[in-house]
Specification:
The structure is a homodimer of 156-residue chains. With 156 residues, chain A is of the alpha/beta class. The first copy, chain A, has one domain (2-149): Alpha/beta knot (3-Layer(aba) Sandwich), CATH 3.40.1280.10. Helices cover 43% and strands 23% of the residues of chain A. Chain A has 5 helices and 5 strands; from the N terminus they run E-H-E-H-E-H-E-H-E-H. Chain A has a 5-stranded parallel β-sheet. In chain A, strand 1, helix 1 (15-28) and strand 2 form a beta-alpha-beta unit. In chain A, helix 1 (15-28) runs parallel beside helix 5 (131-149) and helix 3 crosses helix 5 (131-149). Chains A and B meet through helix 1 and helix 5 of A and helix 1 and helix 5 of B.
Chain lengths: 156, 156
C-alpha cells in the first residue's frame, strides 16, 4: 500500500475539479493511503511581490514535510515519463512503505528552495497545466499506476 | 479566429468533464469557432473484436472529415510540445482560416487508417490519459494557446 501526501498550494475552486478529486481518491483507497494538504496561496498585488509570496508559501510547505519522506515536485521542466515508468518508480515506495510527497505549486510557481529539496522533479507534460488540472491528473495517474502494478487492466 | 473541429469517439460521461468542456468552450468563443463531433463507440465483446470496432469507428470519422482541413490526431506517441509551441503551430490556421481537425479516439484507440490521414500526431503527455481527460485538456490548451497568441496573460 502506497503512503503518499499531496501538498498543494491553492484551493481546488471549481466544483468539477472537486468532484474529480473525490472520485480518484475513492478509487485510490484500496491501493494507497493518500493525504491531501491544501495550503492557502499567499496573496500579492504587484508582479514583483510574487517572489516574497512564493517564499512565504515555501516556509509553510517545509513545515509540513516529513524528513523521512521522498519529495517529488511537479515541474514543467521535470522528467517526462509514461504511465508504466511512473508505476515502476512508485514500486519501491509501495514495497517499503516509505512515504512519497508530491508538491504542486499555485499559478505563481514554487520557490527554488522547494525545488532544491526535491528528490525528483516530475513533469506531467511539457504543456502548461493549471494547478487544478495538475492535481487531478496526478491523482488519476497515481490510480492508473497503482492498478497497473497490481496487475489490473484499466483503460477507462 | 481559429476554425476547429474536435472529433471524439465516445461520450463525456461524468458530469465533471461535461462542466469543464462547457467552461472551456465558453472561454474559447472570442478566439475560435469550435465544433464538437461526438461519435458513438462501437461496442465489442472480446478483445480480438477491438480491431473491427476501430475500423467501423474509423469509417464514421472519415465521413466527417473536411478534405480541405488539416488533421491532427491525438496520440501518446505523437509530438510533445510546450503551450507556446502549440500556440505557434496554431498561428497559421488562425491567419488563413484553414480548418484544423483534432481527432481523439476512445479507450480502444484509433484505426491506423486515421493515423495515416493525419498531418500531425500530437501527444498531450507521454502519460496515458483517459479520452475524457484528453478532450478537456485539449480544449483548455486551445484556450491557453489562443489567449497566448492574442497577447493575454493567462495563468489561472
Amino acid at each position: 500500500m502506497l503512503k503518499t501526501t499531496i501538498i498543494a498550494v491553492g484551493k481546488l475552486k471549481e466544483r468539477a475539479f472537486v468532484e474529480l478529486e473525490q472520485e480518484y481518491l475513492k478509487r485510490l483507497r484500496p491501493y494507497a493511503k493518500v493525504k491531501i494538504i491544501e495550503l492557502p496561496e499567499v496573496p500579492y498585488h504587484k508582479e514583483k511581490e510574487a517572489g516574497v509570496a512564493r517564499r512565504k508559501e515555501a516556509e509553510k510547505i517545509i513545515k509540513r514535510l516529513n524528513p523521512d519522506a521522498s519529495i517529488t515536485v511537479l515541474d514543467e521542466r521535470g522528467e517526462l515519463l509514461s504511465t508504466a515508468e511512473f508505476s515502476r518508480r512508485l514500486a519501491p515506495f509501495e514495497a517499503t512503505g516509505r512515504e512519497i510527497i508530491f508538491i504542486i505549486g499555485s499559478s505563481t510557481g514554487l520557490d527554488k528552495e522547494i525545488k532544491k529539496r526535491a528528490n525528483w522533479l516530475l513533469a506531467l507534460s511539457p504543456l502548461t497545466f493549471t494547478h487544478n488540472f495538475a492535481r487531478v491528473i496526478l491523482e488519476e495517474q497515481l490510480y492508473r499506476a497503482l492498478t497497473l502494478s497490481a496487475g489490473k487492466i484499466y483503460h477507462k
